[in-house]
Design brief:
mainly beta; Glyco_hydro_beta-prop_sf; single chain; Jelly Rolls; 477 residues; Glycosyl hydrolase family 32 N-terminal domain-containing protein; 2 domains; Tachylectin-2, Chain A
Length: 477
């Protein structure tokens, strides 16, 4: 067959439908938007619930290593060193256990869903170093535990000073462990990037590309970079922490909550008062943004706005916010955690007039996000629509996570792969969807059964007015 004809047939062939089965699908990007009109993807900041306190009403302060929900018991690991273990049932009221983790900097705990040995259910990774850094013995060390409290050290797994937590998770999609940590670009003013490592066993030495000269920090030559500030960001900014991982309640969703760091300088910010007169440090502001991915490798930001905004100048979380890795789900709410110093990076205060205006400087905060609500496909009051690519599903009902408020509406049409409405499932047959729902079934003239279409390519066409559409799912009941 002539090459030109093969190319023509390839272009003419309809795209392969996406097999979504009965798994939940989120509108974090354009994967499920083949066509649209007046519909835009929007990041939805969570609701701040305030600073956390312990059982004695004392404020929590410090770096959050990780938050883990293990069978309904929430653990918050607090501190960059001498980490304290706090526990909670609801993710909102925490009590100190009196337990501290072993020494080392930036200890980050990981609850391993893939581990078959109960003694290694929990894993911990921390930094060991002193001045000067010795690549023969310093770097990231690994430990394991059955209970997340008492750990056994295995040994060194990474011979670099990451100056950053090593965020480890099991990626079920590729059947490997993935580590996100800092990678330095030594030739850039803005050095900090997020690197990614894959390994079969995080308790054994992690793979990296060796270079002729071993440097203290892992460089972009040692590990591949998957996320960084770019030309659309402030030219004097980079990425501090990442809080990246797989989102467990939907299909092919990876989320990152990076802290973007905008650096100050004596020339641009002469009003900054160094802690030691005449000694400039790495001053600047940090804010939490959000990145999304389908594979944990290629990341994008739907918007460049703050996901967890900094507080006002008289509030405890001003100028500096860092998200903690980990989610806690309770019903239709997702709790996330963050911390702030209440000062600029390296502990300066922005201007003299703000020296004493904050009643509290720094702390640990909790925010509430709706289930799957991180990003939505939005239509305003003028109305709009979107159509998905062809999908193949299992199940007998279509359910939506959607918010029209009181004044908005949505209608759903199921179409053939060529865009023709399927009889009985056209827009004219669809009953109005109006309100705020996490799991709303779609009705067509009183009927919900779509089982006759299961296994066949269909497109979902949704007409919306003043609506936020978060997710869809075909279910078996």
């Amino acid at each position: 067959m002539p090459t030109a004809l093969i190319a023509f047939l390839a272009l003419a062939a309809p795209p392969t439908p996406i097999d979504i089965g009965d798994r939940k699908q989120l509108f974090i990007d354009d994967r499920f938007i083949a066509e649209r009109d007046r519909v835009e993807l929007r990041v939805n900041p969570p609701q701040k619930l305030g600073a956390l306190r312990d059982e004695k009403d004392q404020l929590l302060k410090g770096h959050i290593s990780r938050v883990i929900d293990d069978g309904g018991k929430v653990r918050l690991y607090l501190g960059a060193k001498d980490v304290q273990v706090l526990e909670s049932d609801d993710g909102l009221k925490f009590r100190r256990t009196g337990t501290k983790l072993p020494g080392g900097w930036f200890p980050t705990v990981f609850l391993d869903p893939h581990e078959t040995d109960p003694a290694k259910k929990y894993k911990l990774f921390h930094l060991e170093f002193s001045e000067p850094f010795d690549p023969a013995k310093h770097g990231v060390y690994a430990s394991y535990s059955a209970d997340g409290v008492t750990f056994t050290k295995v040994g060194r797994v990474f011979p670099f000073f990451t100056d950053n937590p090593a965020i480890v998770h099991w990626d079920e999609r590729i059947k490997k462990y993935v580590i996100y940590t800092r990678a330095f670009d030594y030739d850039s003013e803005n050095q900090r990037r997020i690197g990614r490592i894959e390994t079969d066993d995080p308790l054994k030495p992690w793979p990296y590309q060796k270079t002729a000269k071993h440097r203290t920090f892992p460089s972009i030559e040692n590990i591949p970079v998957v996320y960084s500030a770019d030309k659309e960001d402030d030219p004097h900014s980079d990425v501090y922490y990442n809080a990246a991982g797989a989102y467990p309640w939907a299909d092919d969703v990876y989320l990152m909550f990076p802290s973007h760091f905008r650096h100050f300088s004596p020339q641009r910010n002469p009003f900054i008062r160094p802690r030691v007169k005449g000694q400039w440090e790495d001053y600047g502001m940090l804010e939490v943004q959000m990145g999304v991915s389908r594979d944990g490798v290629k990341w994008a930001r739907p918007e460049r706005s703050a996901y967890i905004p900094n507080g006002l100048a008289d509030e405890w979380d001003r100028w500096y916010t860092v998200a903690a890795p980990g989610f806690v789900r309770r019903g239709s709410s997702i709790y996330q955690y963050y911390y702030s110093s209440g000062r600029l990076h390296d502990s300066a205060i922005l201007r003299p007039e703000y020296d004493k205006v904050a009643k509290q400087e720094g702390g640990v905060g909790v925010v509430k996000q709706r289930l799957d609500g991180f990003v939505s496909a939005d239509a305003d009051h003028r109305g709009g629509w979107l159509t998905t690519p062809s999908v193949v599903f299992r199940g007998n009902r279509l359910r939506l996570n959607i918010d029209t408020g009181s004044a908005g509406t949505a209608f759903v049409e199921l179409q053939e792969a060529d865009g023709k409405p399927i009889p009985g499932f056209a827009l004219a047959d669809c009953e109005e969807i109006g309100g705020n729902f996490i799991d709303q079934c779609v009705y067509w003239k009183g009927k919900t059964d779509v089982s006759a279409l299961a296994g066949k390519p269909v497109r979902i066409h949704i007409k919306m007015k003043r609506t936020k559409l978060f997710a869809f799912q075909f279910t078996k009941d």
